[in-house]
Structures are given as structure tokens and as C-alpha cells.
Amino acid sequence: MSDYLLEMKGIVKQFDGVRALDGIDIRLRAGECAGLCGENGAGKSTLMKVLSGVYPHGTYDGEIIWDGKPLHAKTIRDTEKAGIVIIHQELMLVPELSVAENLFLGHELTLPGGRMDYAAMNRRAEALLAELNIRDVNVVLPVKQYGGGHQQLFEIARALNKNARLLILDEPSSSLTASEIRILLDIMRSLKAKGVTCVYISHKLDEVAAICDTVVVIRDGKHIATTPMAEMSVDRIIAQMVGREMNQLYPTRLHTPGDTIFEARNVTCYDADNPQRKRVDNISFTVRQGEIVGISGLVGAGRTELVSAIFGAYNGPYEAEVWLDGRRIDTGTPLKAIRAGLAMVPEDRKQHGIVPDLSVGQNITLSVLGEFARATRIDQEAELKAIQQEIASTRLKTASPYLPITGLSGGNQQKAVLSKMLLTRPRVLILDEPTRGVDVGAKYEIYQLMLDLASQGVAIIMVSSEMQEVLGVSDRVLVVAEGRLRGDFINDGLTQETVLAAALDV
Ligand SMILES: Nc1ncnc2c1ncn2[C@@H]1O[C@H](COP(=O)(O)OP(=O)(O)OP(=O)(O)O)[C@@H](O)[C@H]1O
Ligand SMILES: [Mg+2]
């Protein structure tokens, strides 16, 4: 018998000419928790899709040995039967179905005679969530009632419901808050104690360092190294990922903000289902020309609601007055907001950012198609040029602008959404969690892009749950807690403690 529960040997996976995986070998011991790290587009998700049967046997080269025997999975069902369960990077829940129905999707409990046993599923769902310490959930409500963090936890609960021997988590924490991440890490520890083998993919390398036994680094579809975590540090993981030392995570801020150009006044958002409840309570703030304002706060504080209302994208009753250059502007819908000079990169790129049926290029020019419209036709040459410029300036990694956007790695989809908004040449750019799922090198590029735009005079509003990022790039930091503005700090030697204290002081 081999020492390993899993061996993947010489895995090669191509997509129309793109060699996403170029002969990868990895091995896992039973009970091991391995961190899988690499830059955006390195091949992490693809490798795990090969392993989990999303890409069936025969559509890749190489060999998978699972529990001593070759694994020839035709579908994801086959691998689930073998005990391999994957939680995908993009959520796979059905928004209209209840939490309980989602947890049992494809494994429904039935009554004799074949009808669904909703009562049993609801009970089991409640028990499962309680066991995972996920509180305040009504399992009969549709999943869409809950925010991204909760949905991610449901996805994890659903996977655990399948009794995995090997659990693969692809970017599970990117939409979680600090307290949700603690729940997740606790779940991981208890899985380890039960002997479940895990593959943990995350760009949050401190999490990898906290829970993984080994670190597997891949780059450009090739295996670089597998090292015991005890011998690694976050800096060394980064160096292996990018192939060089990176000693600066944030570019230097050189720009100086000018006069106030943007103002949001009296923004109040009411809960869509319970209009008595205010999710944002009368917030006003200003932004100067060429200023980067970070909005910090705990998840659920109302930050996304605040910026969505300003951009006309809040899906409930709200009030907001928006001013640009001293004039009140109409931002009642996203289209009006874009015409008035605003742009927003939303938090949830799958739901609000990309159009999955369109190509990379079509997604990028979506908001500015009018610019390429001539009397009777679309000026495709001009359009292609604009697309290529954007791809180059955000260093988006795609084999061609004509590929479907869904073929891009997660981080590169994020860059496409950013490009789409930059093409509208906004005066005010709103970014909601702009570096979610983005690797360290690409994060640096996005920060650099923000600083360049700021030097050109664009006013930037960034919502981020990553405190270090807020402190790393912002000129000023606003703190929101329980729907109210709790702090407005110039970022000059500002510390995490000060920001946290304001966020917690309710
Ligand atoms: N369905 C597909 N069609 C075409 N190309 C694809 C497809 N899926 C992945 N690729 C390409 O394969 C490469 C690896 O992508 P993959 O999604 O595995 O990266 P990743 O390491 O998971 O990145 P990220 O950190 O951004 O999620 C990328 O160049 C990507 O564009
Ligand atoms: Mg991925």
C-alpha cells in the first residue's frame, strides 16, 4: 500500500491551445491539510476540477490514484461516491430554494413513495448548522435572503453533509467576515481532528499558514514545491508563487487630493423585507478630487448597502442625495449613475459584475458600447483596440478577448469587471471589495491602478474587509457600524486598533 491517500501524476489539461496544467504531480497523505497556493490563473481551480470529476477522465492527461486505485471519474457524482467533495470558488447554491433544500440538493431525503421529506430535511439542516456554530438562520427561507458570507457557510455545510474523506475548499473565505472566518477555521480544525483530508485554496496566506500542514505551490500550470508549513513563512510562499521576492505589498502613495468634488448626503437604506429596519442610517460624507477613501467596518455594517444606494443599485427602499462638482446629480439607476460620472465595481461579481454568456471583450465594453456605434454599424476595430488597451493596463491574463469570460480564472474575472468600469472614464469610482480572490501580485497592480487614477484626479471610494488593504491605500478612512458613520480618519499613521475600536464601539 502506498503512504498516500491521493496521488496525481503528470496531470496535463488544455483549453483550446491554453495549457492550464502542464504536468503536475501532487500527493496527499490521509488526514493531511494541504494549502494550494499560486497566482491568479496558475491552475489551482483547474487542478481541483480535474480531481473532483468536473473535468471527466479522458479530458485530461495523467493519472489519479485514489486510495491505492486509479480513479476514472466520469462525473462529480463518481468522485463524491469515492468521498471527494469540492466546494467551488464561485458559489453553486440555487438562490430561490430554501437553505435546507440547498443543503440536500441532489441528496434529497424522501418519504416512502418518493415525495420530499421536507420536515426531516429542515430538522437535519438545523442540526447541521447548529453543529457548525452558524447561528440566526431560518432554514426554510430562500438562500437569497442571506448575504454572501452566510451563503459561503451554507456551501460548506452542504459539503460536510456529504461525509467527505477529502474536502477541497476553493477560496472559501473570500466573502467571509473575520468572525465567519473564525467559524470556518474552527470547522477545518475539527475536520482535521476527525481525520478528514483537506485541500485549502486561498489567497489569504495567513489562513493557509494557520491551518495547513503542507503548502503546495504551483505557477503557470507547473508544480513548484511542496513544503511542510513548519518550514515556510508567508513571505516564502509569496516568493514561490511569484518567482521572486516581493518586499512591498503596497505601492507608495504620491498623489495629493484636491478639492471636494463628491458628496453623498443623508443616505438611508431600509431593509427590503422589513422596511422598519434601517440598514444604513443617515450617512453623509465627502470625497476630494484624487482622494482614496476607504470604508471599513464589520460585515453587515451596511457598507455595501451604502455604496449601492449611491450608485442606484440598492434593491430596497432608500433615500440618497448625491452631489458632484457642487451640483445635485441623478443616480437613481446604475445607468444614470454611469452617465453622471460614477462607476462601481460590485462586491458580487457573479451576480452583478459579469455576463457569463459573453466573451471577455464583450464584457469589458458592455457599459460603453455606444462609444463604438457609428451610423449603421459598430466600429469593431476601435472596440478591439479599447479592449486590448484595458487588458494590457490591468494585465488581465487571457489567451484571447474572444474567449468566454467564464473561462478566466477568478482573479482575472475580477480584473475584467474593473476594466469594464474603467472604460467609462468615471470621475468617481466605487470599488466594493476590489481584490477579493486576487493574488498578491495582482493586488499590487490593482492598488497601483487606483493610485494612478487618483493622481489623474479620480475620486475613489473603496469598501474593503481587509483592514491592512484599507490602511495600505487610503488617504482617509470612514468607519461604518450598524448602519451609522462611526469615524472619519485621515490615514496618517492610522492603526488597525483605532479603526477597529470605532467599528466595535456601538
Ligand atoms: N473553461 C476554461 N476555458 C478556457 N480556459 C480556461 C478555462 N478554465 C480555466 N482556464 C484557463 O486556465 C488557467 C488556469 O485557471 P484556473 O482557474 O485554474 O486558475 P486559478 O489558479 O484557480 O486562479 P485564481 O486564483 O484566479 O482563481 C487560466 O489561464 C484560465 O484562463
Ligand atoms: Mg481559482
From TrEMBL:
InterPro entries linked: AAA+_ATPase (IPR003593), ABC_carbohydrate_import_ATPase (IPR050107), ABC_transporter-like_ATP-bd (IPR003439), ABC_transporter-like_CS (IPR017871), ABC_transptr_XylG (IPR013455), P-loop_NTPase (IPR027417)
Domain of life: Bacteria
Any one Gene Ontology molecular-function term assigned to this protein's record: ATP hydrolysis activity
Name of this protein: D-xylose ABC transporter ATP-binding protein
ABC transporter domain sequence ranges: 6-245, 262-502
Places the protein is found: Cell membrane
Membrane topology: Peripheral membrane protein
CDD domains: ABC_Carb_Monos_I, ABC_Carb_Monos_II
Keywords: ATP-binding, Cell inner membrane, Cell membrane, Membrane, Nucleotide-binding, Repeat, Sugar transport, Translocase, Transport
Pfam families: ABC_tran
Stored NCBIfam families: PRK13549.1, xylG
GO CC field: plasma membrane
Xref: SMART domains: AAA (SM00382)
